[in-house]
Amino acid sequence: MTFWQRLRWVEIPMALPVIFGGIRTAVVMNIGVMAIAAVIGAGGLGCYC
Q1: Could you tell me which of 47, 26, 29 has the C-alpha nearest to residue 38?
Q2: pTM for this prediction
């Protein structure tokens, strides 16, 4: 098995849960920061005031 075959069939499928967990964490953090910024009046969320 070559390096690229091992990467494609073994390493990437094993890493997918961690990758998607990181994406989910980043999305939740961004939504939270946007909500807090809207509350304190930092603009954003489509407001061009």
Answers
A1: 47
A2: 0.70
Q: Which residues contact 38 (CB under 8 A, 6 or more apart)?
A: 44, 45
List pLDDT tens digits, range 5-47. 999 999 999 999 999 999 999 999 999 998 888 788 766 666 6
**Quick check: 38 and 44 in contact, CB under 8 A?**
yes
Q: Measure Cα distances from 31 to 3, 6, 10, 12, 19 in Å.
A: 38, 36, 33, 28, 19
- Rounded-to-integer distance, Cα 42 and Cα 35, Å: 10
